[in-house]
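Quick one, probably user error.
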């Protein structure tokens, strides 16, 4: 008997994707995880999400904390227009009032000035951090006031393109994985890390996809 339709897994693997590292890694995940394959066939691959490494990427992470994506984008555009060059040396010369005028809260002003001072003084050497293994790089980045583990892991993913970083403390990733796998409960961070262990060494690609999947309408 001739089969007239492909399964989601077969459809995903049969049609080539663009030669983006994350997409290549997702194809490999789809070969070993049918839930990923079925969801990938339905919602498609995630759009590219990358940032140049360095001070602006870390500063932008601080700006985006505890605000909506829309508010963070608006604030960041104001910062890009007003702070030229967008470098730690420039920010270190700014007053708290100047940064507040750009929309930063008092706490974020302290974080931004602290980040700039850490880099200008050499207390944090990003060139060295970029050469460290994932866990060691995170340990160094969280020494910066205002950069927690989630922010550090997001920096490694988006700015450094690390392939196996998975921010398990991210609520959207927890919710998306629950939906993807049909779990009764949203997994806590430590459990989620165990559940995505089979995705090694491409957990980063899995994270990119789960964020994309989270934004898509629920599957029937």
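Nope, works fine. Designed sequence:
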């Amino acid at each position: 008997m001739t089969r007239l339709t492909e399964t989601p897994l077969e459809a995903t693997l049969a049609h080539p994707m663009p030669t983006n590292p994350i997409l290549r890694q997702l194809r490999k995940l789809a070969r070993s995880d049918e839930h990923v394959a079925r969801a990938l066939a339905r919602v498609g691959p995630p759009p590219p999400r990358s940032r140049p490494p360095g001070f602006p990427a870390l500063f932008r992470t601080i700006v985006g904390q505890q605000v909506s994506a829309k508010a963070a984008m608006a604030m960041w555009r104001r910062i890009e227009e007003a702070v030229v060059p967008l470098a730690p040396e420039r920010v270190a010369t700014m007053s708290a009032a100047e940064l507040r005028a750009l929309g930063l809260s008092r706490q974020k002003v302290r974080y931004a000035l602290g980040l700039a001072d850490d880099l200008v003084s050499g207390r944090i050497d990003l060139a060295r951090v970029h050469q460290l293994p994932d866990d060691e790089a995170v340990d160094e980045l969280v020494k910066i006031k205002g950069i927690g583990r989630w922010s550090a892991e997001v920096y490694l993913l988006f700015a450094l393109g690390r392939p196996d970083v998975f921010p398990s403390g991210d609520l959207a990733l927890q919710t998306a994985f629950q939906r993807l796998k049909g779990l009764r409960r949203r997994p806590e961070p430590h459990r989620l890390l165990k559940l995505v262990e089979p995705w090694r060494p491409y957990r980063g690609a899995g994270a990119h996809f789960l964020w994309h999947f989270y934004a898509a309408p629920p599957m029937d």
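The longest helix spans residues 106-121.
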